[in-house]
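@channel anyone free to eyeball this complex?
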Amino acid sequence: MTITIRDVAQAAGVSTATVSRALRGLPNVDEATRDKVKRVALSMDYVISPSASRLASGRTGSIGVITPRVAGWYFSTVLSGIETVLQQSTMDLLLLSVGDEATGTPDDPVAPRLNRRVDGVITIALAPEDAQLQSVLSLGLPTSLIGVAIDGVSSVSIDDVAAAKAATTHLIKLGHRRIAVITGAPPGALFTAPHARFRGFMEAMQQADLAVDPTLQVRGYFTIAGGEKAMTELLTQRDRPTAVFAMSDEMAFGAMRAVRSHGLQPGREISIAGIDGHDMSELLDLTTVAQPVQDLGRIAAKSLLSQIRSTDRPAPAQVQAPTHLIVRGSSAPPPN
Amino acid sequence: MTITIRDVAQAAGVSTATVSRALRGLPNVDEATRDKVKRVALSMDYVISPSASRLASGRTGSIGVITPRVAGWYFSTVLSGIETVLQQSTMDLLLLSVGDEATGTPDDPVAPRLNRRVDGVITIALAPEDAQLQSVLSLGLPTSLIGVAIDGVSSVSIDDVAAAKAATTHLIKLGHRRIAVITGAPPGALFTAPHARFRGFMEAMQQADLAVDPTLQVRGYFTIAGGEKAMTELLTQRDRPTAVFAMSDEMAFGAMRAVRSHGLQPGREISIAGIDGHDMSELLDLTTVAQPVQDLGRIAAKSLLSQIRSTDRPAPAQVQAPTHLIVRGSSAPPPN
DNA sequence: ATGAAAGCGCTAACAG
DNA sequence: CTGTTAGCGCTTTCAT
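replying in thread with the prediction:
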């Protein structure tokens, strides 16, 4: 019922080997023959059997994307970047998620789900220390990391230290001196970004000889609700900050809401700056350090494809994508 | 180098057939034998070769998800629902996108990319008339549709007419009489929701004996920017509406922004209601008719799995998920 | 309950 | 440039 390469070969009056070569665009096929084979295949609605091809060739023709979450602005935007690139290639995109500490999802190992089914892997925002990442790396497949960098592995990320520093410095230059930070990571979390961003925050403060008040450091867990709660905490303190650096836009959104529900206005009584360049940041008039999130995905995908294609293992490319400060209404000089 | 079923068979002192049966949990295997095989396989780090298994069995063990977009709140949330279900099964999730009229992405046919590589398909928000959907359906694979319903095919959707009617009726009950609608679809678009939602809007208006002013119908293209532009258009008219029903929350967000930049306030001079229950709607205090987006994905995935598993083709299930009005600050009685 | 053997549909040397 | 011939690693009758 299903038509095979043999049927095509027969109909075209050639061998299956020739059909295989012709259809895959391999050299050493007479153009006339190739044309004919193609025509016949098309007319018969022939579709190559991926499983057979994979079994025979050893290549799977698909790449795995591993992400802690598929919903969420950052993740879905990265994913869309990856997808646009893969769509153009002939590679299939296999989507896998690993348990998320934040959501407390059960965390069964991904490596087995990857093992003989992909030619390469892209991971999104998995920390270097993450056991899952480790097991994926130990598969020895071509790999592209997004959001973090590890020696010897290709990666695309931003300079988190610089981004945080830019946001903080911006607030400082506006004249703020009591600056709070809403950090992302839950205790013991494995993601790198929060640490680096904290360092950037500290560097900016120290360079300006500003005191860093431990009571002005609260956790926002990278969520809107978390940011709101964190900000509420900050606002109920005796000695309020005049500005807040949130490690992500979504936390900043929550913070803005908290500010408003206290009868204050972001950019007036309290300045707020985030990191991301979230779709909604413009709408909400949030000052932020934008990162090219979709590009992160695109770049990683391209890098992975070239790794897979080249025979010799090329030197891992560690790309650092640019970020830029976007000043909006949520940040302004401190009152009076 | 890679270890095969034969190695395991040998090590366990049984035939490859028995290993296959034991590992797959098939009946007619002595429990002792099964245990031993499992143990040996585990100790050898044996991983079944999917391609070989697929070739031999004819099942692909993967399901395809087709979406017009992967970024965007609705799509990524649906996708995450699908993913959670598939993660629990042994099915691989193959992500494919089809060209989006809105984004004008080139639209190469998906059917070939699906043909012998998936056991079933889930489509997100593809219109019944969409050529891509048609070609997918003609593949004859088990299929679950999300966001639309077609006779004879399993689907999960909401009652778009009722949802739109609920939002509109809410505005009417508040006392509004000049009510505008921000529609979604670009001219000639194929998606069903905008049509149904428009019908719901009309029904509500007619039941209240309210005139429907054609100048109060503008297109927002389902985007924030589109909604903002649409609202601006409405506000620059001589006879402004006192309330606006936006067919999606993102358009409503844009509309709220436009309202504000005209020095007005949503829920004061102008009431706004949307549809979606978008993550940000609470933050922005938007009245909306919420739909269980993640559940849509979950339900579709479960339905598809059961279709694939059952031998006889079961009657297609057309699930309609519930929606509910959430009243927030963006809607209130008209001024004086 | 288990084994033997025949493919599944293609690719990849190897000849020619 | 093209054909022959082995497999790739598993599943699945069919026997036993």
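from a first look: Chain A has three domains: 5-57, 62-157+292-320, 160-291.
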